[in-house]
Amino acid sequence: MDSIGAQAYAKILENGVQAIEEVKRLQDSGFTREDIYVISHDQNREDRIAEAAGAGEVGMNEEGLFGTLANMFRSRGDELRSKISSLGFSEAEADFYEKELDLGKVLVIAKKRPS
């Protein structure tokens, strides 16, 4: 899944520098801050990369109230799979991406919001 013209786009990157570059590339192609998400297994790292790149965060708008509250009681892996699924990916895709995040990689997702 590596097509910028698609409704939802996801790319696994090796590090934060590559993730920031990818976010900038997506912004140059027409995605806004609210359309782009950076996800990492380490929450602090995720926050730093998202801030540096100018990307949004998966929150209540994407997950809904129940999903956001449930994440408070989930393991980080379960929370990540939930966030990825809330952006329109299947359970199998969310599981695949979460395993890549376990390896220290960074996931950048871009999804156009409905008009």
UniProtKB/TrEMBL annotation:
It comes from the Bacteria. Residues 11-104 form the General stress protein 17M-like domain. This is General stress protein. The lineage of its organism: Bacteria, Bacillati, Bacillota, Bacilli, Bacillales.
